Amino acid sequence: MASTVEYSSYIIDLCTAMLENPRGLTQAQVQRVSMIRRQTVNFLTDYLRHESSSLPQLLYYLGKEASSPIRIIIGCSDMILSGRCGDVQLNYGEAIGEIRDCGYAIYDDVEDMHKNLSKLMSNLGLVE
After folding, report:
1. Which secondary-structure segment (H or E) carries 10?
2. How far is it, in rounded angstroms, from Cα 78 to Cα 83?
3. Alpha carbon distances (Å) from 63 to 3, 66, 108
4. DSSP-assigned letters across all residues of 38-99
């Protein structure tokens, strides 16, 4: 199973490839792919920065802040795949589908990390 960092890096790579070769993408799709890449970079930067945070800060980040960019990634992917940004060419549709799947995997990983950290901190008497 891939890690959150690997999923994020893969999303960034797919977005970069699409933006470097945008033929076949509508302007609205280009805007959404750009947003996906920007949100993924922001998420990954914050995620890595919080790895060395105190446990309470990490718990707060995982519970409150980490999910926002992930939801944007998934939402933009869904918007493109639904056709609301124009018809999707097959190869781009497959890539956007992979991005959405990675977004869901990251979301699940973050939820699991939050749940496990909360349980650990509770067991250690660090949270109620």
Report:
1. helix 4-20
2. 9
3. 18, 7, 12
4. HHHHHHHHHHHHHTTS-HHHHHHIIIIITHHHHHHHHHHHHHHHTTBTB---HHHHHHHHHH
Contacts of 96 (CB under 8 A, 6+ apart): 33, 77, 80, 81, 88
Residue 127 falls in which region: left (phi positive, over 0), alpha (psi -120 to 50) or beta: beta
Please give the structure tokens belonging to residue 9: 């890096």
pLDDT higher than 90, residue 20: yes
Distance CA 37, CA 32 (A): 9
Compute the distance between CA of residue 79 and CA of residue 110 in angstroms, rounded to an integer.
23
Q: Which residues pair with 92 in a beta bridge?
A: none
Residue range 93-103, pLDDT digits in tens:
999 999 999 99
